[in-house]
């Protein structure tokens, strides 16, 4: 079967197998061009350079600085206030000392001067520039250690790790700390709007990190560019940490201006004001029914408002993504087998199934088989979800959880399917096991 990207009508709507082709990767500017000398052999891909494990203590030291800056400047680091400019000066000082070429871009918002900090790592192919950024401003009501000192510190420590490694990536690396995000992504919009279109086309991708250390954390991956998304998901699969796609992030942070001009985007998020469900607490730990960050936009968003494990994992994931997307042949998005036919789920009734036929593969399925489900169902606690391998072996993806009253199961699971042959009819089995509330399978897909 000719491999092709999602081509809509060319394939039966219900069943699509897609592989983002080389053209797609090139179009997204995510194909690394590695100098011939770096190749082990002309036909062998450049060896993947493993990203370093960022020392959590270093990341937390940046948070302590942000806290001290806020404490010394009226309790915040908000746009137009002295605490914000002091934050810019701190980050810039670290980067200048580490050999970056830094630029402070000024703009005006609400009658006050705002600042973006841009830091370029010398070298790399500037026609393929990978960017990573975070907003550095807080709200005026607090120091903004999680929102968004955490993202700022993770990006800063990644940049400092690039310097420590004296990395020579295929792509050019650019890091950014945005002003006035809390006023509506003002700084990042100013940057993108003032970037000439010739320069915009050179940005191969923008990675955004806004709240990555929430005290009651979730592990959310932006569901935008598939290659960037897969890079993050593979990282977490390696840690055996389940992730969910971030479904309400569109327009809510600094990736939006980049996405709006067609630049591939991705990112990570550990949650804000929404409550963690019981199903999420089962998979991630923490407290069900409590906000991911109950100090969101509050004065209590201090250094004690951070979960170290989430901050550590997400900071390391930033480094992994930068090393992978800028220094190596990018991870191909994989072969996708999808079924988008709606299947009604009877209330408190028999299980229903939706099938994808996997063909043309050899051997067994992978140890990290990705299963993305999109089930629309009110009171999702009613719903039990299994993956059935071609031989009928069942892999439980989601248990029922009576008090999970949230709607819809839109989630990504990783299954160790290495004992199963790859080819055959794989099924998603869904059953509603409690009366009232109904729904349907909207779509699901396997990525090999
Ligand atoms: N708006 C961001 C926090 C935020 C809320 N939902 C998302 C989703 C994805 C990224 C960020 C956010 C702020 O208050 O800075
Ligand atoms: Ca670490
Ligand atoms: Zn905020
Ligand atoms: Zn934020």
TrEMBL record:
Keyword Secreted on entry: yes
* One Pfam family here: P_proprotein
* Cofactor(s) the record lists: Zn(2+)
> What sections of the protein cross the membrane?
none
What are the boundaries of the signal sequence?
1-40
One GO CC term of this entry?
extracellular region
Q: Name one GO molecular function term.
A: serine-type endopeptidase activity
The family database entries (InterPro entries) matched by this protein are listed as: Galactose-bd-like_sf (IPR008979), M28_fam (IPR045175), M28_SGAP-like (IPR041756), P_dom (IPR002884), Peptidase_M28 (IPR007484)
Kindly list the places in or outside the cell where this protein is found, as annotated in its UniProt entry.
Answer: Secreted
Annotated P/Homo B domain residues: 331-448
User: Keyword annotations for this protein?
Assistant: Calcium, Disulfide bond, Hydrolase, Metal-binding, Protease, Secreted, Signal, Zinc
> Please, which domain of life does this record's source organism belong to?
Bacteria
**Biological processes annotated in GO:** proteolysis
Q: How does it assemble?
A: Monomer.
Query: What is stated as this protein's family in its record?
Result: Belongs to the peptidase M28 family. M28A subfamily.
Name listed for the protein in its UniProt record:
Leupeptin-inactivating enzyme 1
Source organism: Streptomyces alfalfae
Lineage of the organism: Bacteria, Bacillati, Actinomycetota, Actinomycetes, Kitasatosporales
